[in-house]
Amino acid sequence: MLNGVDLASPYQTGFPKLGQDFVIVKFTEGTYYTNPDRVTQLATADLKAAYHFAAGSDVISEANYFLQMFKPYVGQAIPVLDYEAAALNKWTTANVEQWLDYVYQKTGTKPWLYMALGTENSKDWTAVAAKYPLWIAQYNNGITTGFQPRSLYGKLTHQWDWAAFQYAGGNGRLVGWGNGQKAIDLDVCYWTKEQWQSWLNNSTAEVISLHPVVKWNVKRVFVVTAIAGCDLYDSPELDKVIRHLNFGSSWAVLGEENGALKLGKDQWVDGRDGFSKSNPLATQTKLAGRVKIVTPNTYSLCDPITSATKAKELVINQLYDVVGRQDKYFILKELFNGQQVYVSGDNAYVVL
Question: pTM value?
Answer without folding.
Answer: 0.61
